[in-house]
Amino acid sequence: MTVTHHVRVHRSEEELAREDQLAFKIAQVAVDPVEVEPEVVDMIINRVIDNAAVAAASLTRAPVSAARAQALDHPVSRNGAGASVFGTEELSSPEWAAWANGVAVRELDYHDTFLAAEYSHPGDNIPPILAVAQHVGADGAALVRGLATGYEIQVDLVKAICLHKHKIDHVAHLGPSAAAGIGTLLGLDAGVIAQAVAQALHTTTATRQSRKGEISTWKAHAPAFAGKMAVEAVDRAMRGETSPAPIYEGEDGVIAWMLDGPQAAYDVPLPATGEAKRAILDSYTKEHSAEYQAQAWIDLARKLHGERSFDPADVAAIVLHTSHHTHYVIGSGANDPQKYDPTASRETLDHSIPYIFTVALQDGGWHHVDSYLPSRAQRADTVALWQKVTTAEDAEWTRRYHSEDPAEKAFGGRVEITLTDGSTIVDEIAVADAHPLGARPFARADYIAKFRLLAEPVLTSAEIDRFLDLAERLPALTPAEVRELNIVARDGVLASAPSPTGLF
């Protein structure tokens, strides 16, 4: 049974035993040897395939090329065999492999998501945990256990602690979860893991400016940085070094000065001893390459496109009535003029629901490359319709967004299209078609199809089949096979990618 831990700020003169600190309680979950349930194993396999799919599609993009070049400029560290760098057969030190692969996974914003009090992409746990597994020679069963922990801790923190309200980036939950997952993988004791969790949190708290205004390429690097810091935090803790404590509850800690303040308290749910780690089953992946809160809106726009055409001259206004999060983060409530700028960056357009809904309404779908092309964003009829799309917060959709009942938790809303003749078109959608409760929930065949679609331009068919064979046998992989859990680009693909040089 899940145990809820009451977490509050403690003054320095108050005694808070190490065992009562949230970092240690997270560590206790990590060391619990409970078996990973078959349903969870299957979903972990799905997400390993999903991560590889979106990484393959981003191999030639500039941010990924830069991160890959940085990783390959660092040799394998002495105490292990090294870790694979996506796209190549070369190895790097595990923290740098986690960095490069983390950027590749996040670049297109196209992998799994969990939304509650905070936002998250729990698949960001996979690159650092996999990199360490390859470096130390762990087998597939150990990798599965580590990934189950990483997902569990991140989802549990996201359920309980809101970061964005205080403009702290959501990767602050990723550092601790990845450190915990690595601790499980390595079989470390709770004391060591707790130190790593604290250090990972301490080094990964940053502002949300990376997701505001003209969004930069750092958006893809931020989770990779958190994964890299998690690897380094574990290394440091394994050497016997300690970290700021209590990192969450301290008088000058994260809660007191970065979150709700000295009087704050949070109730964090964690599995009880012996309880299976099932949090990955609460998460969901993306059918479309866009912010998760746009997924359902793309599907609704696709449906409306099939029913009629929308000439900008015939449309007076389009209002998307939706949750607080959607309105203020990717909607007009953000008050970011860049969200209506036809020359905005891909990262900015990915966080503009007015743009995304417009293009999906006109095209009847969404493409991870074509929908973001400058020529697509600057098309005159698109710009004309785009400027007529706004969002509005709706209390009921906000309530459903935060609902703890999976049957009513929703990420969509209601669209009202007012035509110039005075008539209106009203429709709504609660969850994306690919959501577990959607019209076409994603299953293994869909993950494989997504991988093949995104990988075929850059991987040979033999390489695609080789990777899928390994991924589908994940729990039974030998250490040698875990080291082969990589994607290698076909000849000439990376030669066409940018090859930046820097300091290293």
From TrEMBL:
It comes from the Bacteria. Residues 21-265 form the MmgE/PrpD N-terminal domain. Belongs to the PrpD family. It comes from Microbacterium memoriense. InterPro entries: MmgE/PrpD_sf (IPR036148), MmgE/PrpD_sf_1 (IPR042183), MmgE/PrpD_sf_2 (IPR042188), MmgE_PrpD (IPR005656), MmgE_PrpD_C (IPR045337), MmgE_PrpD_N (IPR045336). Residues 288-471 form the MmgE/PrpD C-terminal domain. This is MmgE/PrpD family protein.
